[in-house]
Design goal:
The structure holds 2 protein chains of 2 kinds. Chain A is α+β, with helices and mostly antiparallel strands. Chain A has a single domain, classed as Histidine kinase-like ATPase, C-terminal domain (Heat Shock Protein 90). Chain A is built from 7 helices and 5 strands; from the N terminus they run H-E-H-H-H-E-E-H-H-H-E-E. Chain B is of the alpha/beta class. Chain B has one domain: 2-Layer Sandwich (Transcription Regulator spoIIAA). Helices cover 37% and strands 30% of the residues of chain B. Chain B contains 3 helices and 6 strands; from the N terminus they run βββαβαβαβ. In chain B, strand 3, helix 1 and strand 4 form a beta-alpha-beta unit. The longest helix of chain B has 19 residues. The radius of gyration of chain B is 14 Å and the shape is globular. The chains are: A alpha+beta, B alpha/beta. Chains A and B meet through helix 3, helix 6 and helix 7 of A and helix 2 and helix 3 of B.
Chain lengths: 184, 129
């Protein structure tokens, strides 16, 4: 059966802009997505502070996704989900990828801890991680979630949908409110 | 000693380290996949400069539009090298340039200020157009 894209278009009309990507999330693909988002923000977002913040958070979320897929590469592929949604009142950035049970526990602990911190505590924690020696084995500084939480000033929302005893689909979601800019 | 010049790319900043004038610049975006690889030549250059650091004046201007968290760690290493150059006898300052509206960039500068302590680290606002 043929897919009716006019239907898809109508469904998408309510929102300003939606980009939804599923596939390989290597550095090259992530860069292409970020280019599209940057172009789009350039015309759609009047407030330079919001524009920069949204682009920054998107970069961190998608690069984070890209880095954290690698260890699963052989068993469950290198594919991931990257979503960007622009609404009248907010931006939503989401990522999705498969994780194993033991990673799930670690991710939960980490995000719950970050979400439990006040703004000032988060700042101190960030500095502490920044000052600690070296990089993780994945070449990241372990700062991704903390940075995203600080910049978005809101809780990181996450969800695990279980596929079986050992595998879950991990979704991370960040919302950034749009600041009204007065039109002269 | 040779100067170090790296042209900017979509994901990495323009870099110019001039041993004659003591002017050091890092400008643009720093969102590479492997920041360690990008920043290593910079840190190596600064390490080599130590031999002639005494009595020199060094000014590092960092003007970044965006930087990812793994770059933030590499930048701290660069700043620590500047502290070492100061300890080796150079007069050193770091200027962290931010757009007026960019609270996240200003905050990041304050974090570095806290972590470095013993070095002039100035948060400067880029003049608006």
């Amino acid at each position: 059966m043929k897919k009716d894209y006019s239907q898809v278009y109508r469904e998408m009309q309510d929102e300003n802009f939606i980009l939804s990507y599923k596939g390989q999330v290597g550095f090259v693909q992530i860069n292409s997505l970020l280019r599209i988002i940057e172009d789009r923000l350039e015309t759609a977002e009047q407030n330079p502070k919001t524009r920069k913040k949204v682009y920054n958070i998107a970069t961190e979320c998608y690069q984070n996704l890209s880095h954290h897929l690698e260890k699963h590469s052989e068993e469950i592929g290198t594919k991931g989900l990257a979503v960007f949604e622009a609404y009248q009142d907010k931006y939503v950035i989401a990522t999705g990828n498969y994780v194993f049970k033991d990673s799930e526990e670690k991710i939960r602990e980490r995000i719950d801890y970050i979400n439990s911190l006040s703004k000032e505590e988060l700042r101190e924690y960030h500095k502490q991680l920044l000052a600690s020696e070296g990089f993780s084995e994945k070449g990241t500084a372990g700062l991704g979630f903390v940075d995203i939480a600080r910049k978005s000033e809101g809780n990181l929302r996450y969800e695990f949908s279980h596929l079986d005893d050992n595998l879950a689909f991990f979704t991370l979601k960040v919302e950034i409110p749009r600041i009204e800019t007065k039109q002269e | 000693m040779e100067s170090l010049r790296i042209e900017k790319t979509l994901n990495t900043p323009f870099v110019h380290l001039d041993p004659d004038t003591g002017k050091l610049e890092i400008k643009g975006r720093s969102v590479p996949e492997n920041p360690l690889e990008f920043y290593t030549p910079i840190n190596e250059w600064l390490e080599r400069f130590k031999a002639q650091a005494a009595e020199r004046v060094l000014s590092l201007d960092v003007e970044l539009e965006y930087f990812n968290t793994s770059s933030s760690k590499c930048l701290l290493d660069v700043f620590k090298k500047m502290v070492q150059l100061k300890n080796a006898g150079a007069a050193v300052e770091i200027n962290w340039w931010c757009e007026e509206f960019d609270d996240d960039m200003i905050e990041a500068g304050k974090d570095y200020q806290d972590l470095l302590g013993n070095i002039p680290f100035n948060i400067r606002i880029i003049a608006g157009e």
